[in-house]
Every structure is written in C-alpha cells, then in structure tokens.
Amino acid sequence: MKKTATVLAMLLVILILFSPSAKADEVKNFIKLSEPKDNYMTSADKVLISGETVPNSKVSVLINGRKEEKELSVGAAGVFVTQAPISSKENIITVKALFPSGETETVSRKVYQLESGSELPELGSLIQTLKSFLILK
C-alpha cells in the first residue's frame, strides 16, 4: 500500500511538471514576420502581411506610422494574415504584437511601390547583362 502511494505521488509530480499549463509559462514572446520580405518591391497597391507569434496575442499593423483600422486576434496556432494598402514609393510596414503577458514587440519592413509599367531594377540589370553576353558570343 505504501509503495503504491509513493508511485502515485511520483506520477502526480511528473504530470504537474510536464503539464501544458506548466510549459505555458516557459514560452518566450516572439514575433516572426514571413511576408513581406525587407526591401520588397511591388507595383500593387496592397501588400500581404503574414507571420506567427505567441498564441492568443493581438497584432496591429502600422503603415508609415499610421495604424490600420483593425487589430488582429491571433488564435491558438499563433498565425496571422492580412492585407494592407500602400500608397507611397517607400513604405514602412510595422507589425506590433501585444502578448498575453502584457509585453510588446515590433518588427518593421520596407516595401517599395513601383509605378505601373516600371520594371524591377534587378531585372533591368539582368537583361542588360544577358544582352552583353549574347552580343559577345
């Protein structure tokens, strides 16, 4: 009987130590922005913003310092996705996460809006290199 009580007590201690609620306190706050990449170039008037953070956080998006209308609630998976309008040639996208602990963290990216019909600078350089290569051959 005494041996059974000791085994049960040990099992109870193990269950408490490894329970999800005990591990929840160990989760570090983070925010990872998947899209847009830094220095992203587009001719569109909207940009996709996606990433992940601590589950049950709240995420807000600022474009050039102006807060977008809606605050995103992050579910149990910790994933968020939204679109935001951009209007100037250089845009600073700032994503701010408010964690359940009350702490905050921000991540920023630069997004460049190209005029319609303009080509990406890297593409123009690549085309020029290819033309030079083909002429030499």
Q: Mind explaining what this structure looks like?
A:
- With 137 residues, the protein is an alpha+beta fold.
- It is 27% helix and 38% strand.
- It contains 3 helices and 9 strands, in the order H-H-E-E-E-E-E-E-E-E-E-H.
- It has helices spanning 2-17, 20-24, 121-136; strands spanning 31-35, 40-42, 46-53, 58-63, 66-67, 72-73, 79-85, 90-98, 104-113.
- The strands form 2 sheets. Strands 2, 4, 5, 6, 8 and 9 form a 6-stranded mixed beta sheet that branches. Strands 1-3-7 form a 3-stranded antiparallel beta sheet, with no helix packed on it.
- The protein is elongated, with a radius of gyration of 24 Å.
Helix-strand string: HHEEEEEEEEEH
Number of discrete helical segments: 3
Q: How many strands in all? A: 9
How would you classify the quaternary structure?
Answer: single chain
Which descriptor suits the 3D outline?
A: elongated
**Ends distance:** 91 Å
Q: State the secondary-structure class.
A: alpha+beta
- Content of β-strand: 35-45%
Helix content: 25-40%
Report Rg. 24 Å
Q: Overall pLDDT, averaged?
A: 80
Low-confidence stretches are none
> Largest sheet at a glance?
6 strands, mixed
